[in-house]
Amino acid sequence: MGQPDEVGAQLLGPLLARKARILSNKAVHLPHVVQMQKQGTTFSHYFVTDSLCCPSRSSIFTGKYPHNTTVFSNGGDAGGYPQFERAGNATQTFAAVLEPAGYQTRMMGKYLNGYVPRRDQKDPGWTGWNVAGEGGYNEFVYELNNDGVVKLYPRNAMPSGR
């Protein structure tokens, strides 16, 4: 190997090529996002209160910083859905404020790590609740709480051809 720049190029070249292939592949699956970008929509100046999932989601739901929600991690004693509940955040979400004022609120998808559909009910303020549990990370094997009715979605529930 030669000069440091050559070494860097030899080491980083394959990594950058791989990243370009990955991004190109993702573009195939996100045609609407790619179209928005071509029309000038980008998110280059965004921020989050915390880079971890649960502290960030807790901030989005409550409008509070992580040191005020006391959700500091995605699990364990200081994180996830159990800590969100223990800290009393469930009654302080935007849904808990909007619903009594007459607004319809619906939570769909993932709520917080540690939420278990067959054990945990919907949180206060949500007029609709379609929330998956931890299994959502296993692609198509997960439980979904649909307004109190829990259904298992096994892998074989996928339509053929996918």
How are the SSEs placed, and which strands pair?
Layout: H1 4-29, H2 31-38, H3 53-62, H4 66-69, H5 80-86, H6 94-98, E1 106-110, E2 128-132, E3 142-146, E4 149-153
Parallel strand pairs: 1-2
Antiparallel strand pairs: 2-3, 3-4
Provide key terms for this protein.
162 residues; alpha+beta; 2 domains; four-stranded mixed β-sheet; 4 strands; globular
| Helix segment tally | 6
- How would you describe the shape? globular
Poorly predicted segments: none
- The arrangement of helices and strands along the chain is HHHHHHEEEE
Number of domains as seen in the coordinates: 2
Give average pLDDT, whole number.
82
Helical content, roughly?
25-40%
Cα-atom radius of gyration: 21 Å
- Strand composition percent: 5-15%
**Lateral arrangement of strands in the main beta sheet:** 1-2-3-4
CA-to-CA gap between the ends? 45 Å
**How many strand units?**
4
